[in-house]
Amino acid sequence: MDTKTEIKKNIFSLFSNVASSIGYSPLHGEIIGILLISDKPLSLQEIAKELGYSPSMISLSLDLLEVLDVIKKIKKPGDRKLYVKLSGDLLEILKKAILFKVQSNIKDTLTGFEESKKHAQKLKTKQKDQLERSIDILETNIRRLDKYLKLLSEIRLP
Known about the structure:
Layout: H1 3-21, H2 26-38, E1 42-43, H3 44-51, H4 55-67, E2 71-75, E3 82-86, H5 90-120, H6 125-154
Antiparallel strand pairs: 1-3, 2-3
Helix pairs in contact: 1-2, 3-4, 5-6
C-alpha cells in the first residue's frame, strides 16, 4: 500500500472512530473523512467506490447526514449524478451531530420517565413514593441538562 492510500485509510479510520464514539455509524465518519480529503463535491458512486460500500448503503448514510445538515446534496448542470459536499465548518458539523444525538436521547429518556411514573402508580405506597422521588430527581436533572444543551447550541464557535 502506498503512503497516500495509507494516510487516507488512517483518516477514514479516525473519522469512523469519532462517529462511533458519539453514537453514529462508522460509515458516517468515513463519508465525512472522504469529503474532507477530497475538498470537492463527490458523486455517490465515487464515495461508494472509494470506501468499498454499496451505493445503497452510502445513500442511506447520506440521507441521515443531510438531515443533520452535515452534507448538502447537489446536482451539476448537464450531469444526472448526485453529488455531495460538506455543508460547513467541521467543528460546527461535529457540534450539530453531538447535540442532535444527545437531545434525541434526552427526549427518549423523558418519555421513559413518563412510562415509569405510570408503572409506579401501580405499586404499594412505600415503593411508589420512593420510586416517584427517584424519578423526579432524575427528571429534574435531565431537564437541566436539556436547558444547558439548548444554551450550548446557541454558542457560536470561534
